[in-house]
Amino acid sequence: MSIDYSKEFEMIAEVYKKTGGDEKALFDKKHGALIINENKVLGKNEIKGMRIEHQSLKNGVKVKIFVEEGIKIENPVHLCFGMLPKEGRQEIYSEFIIGKNAGVEFTAHCIFSNAKHIEHIMDSEVVIGENAEMSYTETHYHSESGGTFVYPKLRGEIKKGGRFFEEFKLTEGRAGTLNIDYEIDQDERSSCELLTKIYGKKDDRIEVRESLNLNGVYAAGTAKSRIVLTDNAFGNVLGEIKGNAAYTRGHVDCHEIVHGDGAKAVSTPKISVENSFARVTHEAAIGRISKKELETLMARGLREEEAVDFIVRGLLR
Amino acid sequence: MLELRDVHYGTGDKEILKGIDLVIGESRIQSIIGVNGTGKTTLAAIIMGLNGYRPHRGRIFFKGRDITDLSITERAKLGITLAWQIPASFEGITVKEYLSIKKNFTAPEKALKLVGLNPNLYLNRVVDENLSGGERKRIELASVFSVKPKLVILDEPDSGIDMASITAIKKVIKNFKKMGTSVLLITHSERMAKVGDTVSLLCDGKIVKEGNVKEVTEFFRKYCRECDHIGEIEEEILK
Predict the structure, then answer these.
(1) Assembly ipTM
(2) Is there a smaller number of Cβ atoms within 10 Å at the N or the C end of chain B?
(3) CB A301 to CB B101 under 8 A?
(4) Domain for residue B213, yes or no?
(5) Among A225, A253, A300, which would you mutate to test the B interface (most chain B Cβ atoms within 10 Å of its Cβ)?
(6) For chain B, what is the domain count?
């Protein structure tokens, strides 16, 4: 029996549009797409060389996305994970299998714009084949209630010569309780860039762990985070890179800005090498917004609050 | 346009500015020359009203209005702005955005052209450490142009940049004057000071000589450039 989700689909497409997504892409046959609300797949579009398998669970959806060997997907694939109700729990178990020499770019939006008490568990596995390339940009839109509990977990494997770019962005609405846990294993000559941008307000609690294991020779990776904390928000970032093979290159770059007397930040870069030809570096900074940056903008006529917004907007872009 | 009357400022027991009297007229370039540590940058900070820089004594007037107690933003809105010796970086902010801080002012394209930079090459670049010192200085000047100030304070605009950029920056300073903007040009270089219509020599927090460009810069070259003392210019020399 097929159920008509068209009304729900339209509602989520509307929110998707409001939150900056290209809603036309959800209807466009040229773009691969997958739209989920609660535990229902409202729509999907498979394109040549890309297959999507899914299965509804009690509280979520299990998804497998395959990109065939040698296939370069021309247009971004749009993923939309939403919870339109005010309360509930959503579990997404996803697998991304990118074939050898394939290439794909995912644009994911996670929409919890009505949340009063929403739990979202995102448990992902990513396997990027030899010389394949995957980009995954995940943008979250939360309500202002602070009642979102989001737990994104990712385990990845990048095979020889593969490339992975991952960006997590949460700058609209309250972060609520957020616990990011990413760990990637990298084979020889692979590269990986993890980038996290979060704006924490009021009593948001943000935990981030980004971990890269540079296991193959010449593997390279960066774990970069930009966190802005205001009011009484708390942020704790662990950037971890292990240089386990010769000529591996890694860099942890963490910058947390604390604006307000009650905000607290912890940053821990953890780097190690197990080969004398490996090189892993780190930079971590926690502090207020630079006085010089603020005063430069104020000397051009901005009020202090406007100057802070301007600086934060750039940092979290 | 700008008048400082007996301005004193210090930190702790140390007095940095010791009674500055200074007048800058409309559409004038006023150079302030002095060796390191004489209070030039402090003077810039006091005029701009940066946090922590309020005169302990004396008053500052702009177009007849006492601005001594005004904030940075309030002074900026009256038409005063400052370009720092080492400009700030702004992660994630493009040149176009940086030059569009205030709406209805000089267009970013035009501001870049005024400082000799090709808008097609710079508008989408980020205002961060990937710009060279010369590029960053010119973009800072473009940012000043973009807000159409009545008075701009330029703190060491020639420091840390190549000769080609210095020539371009001199031209930019003259352009400010043509547009009716007065310039307070702070420098330790005689060559840069000569761009001014008049020059004041700052030594140990005091203006010890001012007026004719040639006369003051020659005096600076003769007595100050190699001078290792602070604050003991002999009355005999000054005479």
Answers:
(1) 0.92
(2) C
(3) yes
(4) yes
(5) A300
(6) 1
